[in-house]
Amino acid sequence: MIPVRDDLRALKGYHSPQVEVDVRLNTNESPFSPPEGFRDALASEMSCVDWNRYPDRSASALRSDIASLHGCDAEQVFVANGSNEVLQTVLLAYAGPGRTVVTFEPTYQLHAQIARVTGAAVVEGERGEDFTLNPAEVDRVLERAQPHVVFLTSPNNPTGLVEPRERVEQLLASASGLVVVDEAYAQFADWSALDMVEESVPLVVTRTFSKTWSMAGARLGYLVGPAWLVAELDKVVLPYHLDVAKQLAGRVALRYADDMNERVALLVSERERMSNALGVLPVDVFESGANFILFRPNVTDGKSVWRGLVDRSVLIRDCSSWPRLNNCLRVTVGTPDENDRFLIALAETLLHSGPAGSTDTVKV
Ligand SMILES: *Cc1c(COP(=O)(O)O)cnc(C)c1O
Hints:
The protein has helices spanning 38-46, 60-70, 82-94, 109-117, 135-145, 165-174, 227-236, 244-254, 257-279, 302-311, 336-351; strands at 23-25, 77-80, 100-105, 121-126, 149-153, 178-182, 203-208, 221-224, 283-285, 292-297, 314-318, 329-332. Strand 9 (283-285) and strand 10 (292-297) form a beta hairpin. By secondary structure, the chain is an alpha/beta fold. The protein has eleven helices and twelve strands.
């Protein structure tokens, strides 16, 4: 074996364990396949592709479709292979060796992970017990770290918490560097920082097709930010990184924005139903503005509850051993049916009120 870069030796990879089960509520995807008509429309577009040619390097048609969706300029849109690649490109351009990145923990693990892979130092700010972010803590960390890049995830993953607009304003006022607001779940929340993007403001807002657009398989994400910043990202990213099929899939998906909004509305109402149902079980439930809910069993430990659910063929995310998330579990909002199966399995597991698979002893 030859040694890897010194600074990478201590890094662990990012894992999201998969188990064969009937009900998969662990990775926050949409539970629905793409809208009626999407497959045929995409297949017909695909039949005209010049496969011998490189794709449009700047993905200009896709950028301009995304720009019309948000009412911004196409030059303010950067598109990549999932918002993870968007984040990586931002960090390659604005973090890297000798630079500092700030996160407020607990939050999306990949912000710190990708920052470290680029060689940047990561300074972790701390959220409170209820996972809210104290303005004094924000100022303390910014003062100390003088970061080149600051991350804020709203709604936050895995907590579900929606950050108030004032927190973004505070970051913009106090941070010396770039502010990245990760809005992977913003469609499920009641506000977005998109309207704060301006040429004179060092702010980017990242979005993804993975969570709301039923397109996690396509790997497509983007950011909206100042055109001068997008131009720097275009220099950093690999040429032709967006294949022709993905560019088409994104454009076709955007024709179905109305269907997407209906699905979001259904998932939001299911989220509220699930929160209420969880509220009568012996768990602490954290308020969520996303398509998932974080909760903490308070009679037994998270890990054994997670196992009890797997035994009943329901898979959720086990955060119980993650730093600061002691005993917490995260469930993705699925179809009404899947959510019922989860709630029944959870009630059984918590109340030990019947053998695995029996549903007749518990009402949800
Ligand atoms: C899922 C997720 C992403 C990654 O999205 P992709 O577009 O699938 O890469 C980014 N940020 C947060 C907070 C997420 O939860």
